[in-house]
Amino acid sequence: MLVATPEHLEHLLRADISRIAPWVTTVTFVAPHNNWALRFRNFKKALIAQAVYEYARKNHVRHDFDSDDGYRNFIEQHWSGRLPFFDGQVRVAYAKYHEAALNAKALLFSNGLKAAWTIALRALRNVERLHFTSEQLEELGILHSPVQPACIIRDHDHDRNHTEETCRRVAAPVGDALFAAGIYCLAKAKVKARVLDVACAMTGKLEWETLAGWKDLDLSQIWRFDFQPKVQSFEEDLDIFGGEDAIAARAANAVAAVLKKCGNKLEEFSYDRSCPIIWPGDKVIHLPRLRHLSLDKGSIRPHNLRAWIATMPSLEDLILFDSKLCEDVYHGWKYIFDAVRNHPTRMRVYFDRIKTNDAADLSLEYHTDDFQRVLKQEENQDPWEDIKRSLSLYLSGKIEFNRSLRIWLQDD
C-alpha cells in the first residue's frame, strides 16, 4: 500500500522491501485522508453529521436526518441546543487538518515521493493488480489528532444536510494528483501488472494520455480493467469541466487510452455509475479475448456498441445495468440486440432496468443457448407481457422482430 502522506513515506524509506517483495501481488495507491480543497464550513458540517449519527447509534435514537429541519431538532432535544464541541476547538482542529492536507499536497507533487515509490515498485516484481482508491482510512486522521477525538473526521454517514457529493468533490483534486503520481512511477519502474482498478475520486478532467509517463506505461499484460473513478458532475462542476456530456466524452477517451494499450490481452472490462460516460467511441478497438463486458449506467452509443461487439469473438457475458441510449431514442436497442443475435458464439445477457421506453424499464437474464426451454412457453396475447419471451427468442435467432419488441421500443 502506497499512501501519499509524510508518515507513510517515512515508513517506506525505512522499510526493507526485499523482505516482502516475493509475496506482494497487489499495489494499492491510497489518496491522503486530508483533502486540501475542504473548507471550514464543510469541515464543521462533517463533524456535526459524524457526532449526530454516532450519538444516535450508541443511544438507539431514531430520527429522520433527511427532514427539513436537518439536525436542528435533534440537537435541541438531545444536547439542549449545544454541539458536543466548541467553535474554538473546531477551528483548531481545522487548522491542523488543513496543514496536514497542504503537506500531503506538496508531497504528492514532489520528486521525493515519486523517487521513493519508483524504487519500491522496481523491487516488487510479482505485482498482479494495481488499485487506485480514495478510501478513507481512520488511522490517517489519528496521525493528526486535534484538540479532542470528536474533532477528527472519520468515515461518516451522509444525508441531504451533509451529502456524499460534498466529500467526493473535495477529494477529487487529491485523486487526480494521486493517479498522476502513480502513473508516473509505474512507467518509470516498468511495472507490468495484469489487473487495473481505478476507483479513486477524480475531477472531470480525465485527460489521461497527457499525464507524464503515460506514453511509456506498459499495460500490455492487463486482462481485467475496472473503470470506476468517483467523478462528480453537478452544480458549478458542470461549468468548470464543460458540462456532463464533455466529462462523459473525456471518460470515454480515458477508457480508450487504456484499451489501446491492453486490447489484445483484455478479457474483462467494466465501468460503473460513479462516473458519467458516453461509450463506446467511434473508433473501434479490437478486443479479441474479451469475455466479460459489464456497463453500469452511463450512456450507450448503440451503433458503435454493435460494431464493437462484432470484434469481440470471445464474448460470453454482456451485462447492462440501468443503461440508456444517447441516440436513436429507444429503437436503437435493436442494434445491440442484433449484435447479440448475430454473434458467432452464444452468450449470457443480463439486462437490469435498461431504458427501453417511456413507461417501463426492461430486465432480462438469459443465455442465448437456452432457447428450447423458452420455445415451450405459450405466447402471451398481451404484447406488453410477452416481452421476455419475445426478446429471448429474438436474441437466439428463433423469431423475427415482433410486435411485442416494437411496442417496448416504441417503434410500433
Provide a quick synopsis of the model.
Helix content is 40%, strand content 15%. By secondary structure, the protein is α/β, with parallel strands linked by helices.
Structure description:
The protein is of the alpha/beta class. 40% of the residues lie in helices and 15% in strands. The chain has helices spanning 6-14, 40-58, 72-79, 87-108, 111-123, 138-142, 164-189, 236-240, 244-262, 302-309, 333-341, 371-375, 387-395, 403-408, and strands spanning 2-3, 26-30, 129-133, 195-199, 201-202, 224-227, 230-231, 268-271, 278-279, 292-296, 299-300, 317-321, 324-325, 348-355, 361-367. The chain has a ten-stranded mixed beta sheet. A three-stranded parallel beta sheet has the order 9-11-13. The longest helix has 26 residues, at 164-189.
Low-confidence sequence ranges: 137-149
The number of E-state strands comes to: 15
What is the overall shape?
globular
Helix-strand pattern: EHEHHHHEHHEEEEHHEEEEHEEHEEHHH
Distance between the termini: 56 Å
Structural class: alpha/beta
Largest sheet: 10 strands, mixed
Helix content: 25-40%
- What is the average per-residue confidence, as pLDDT, rounded to a whole number? 87
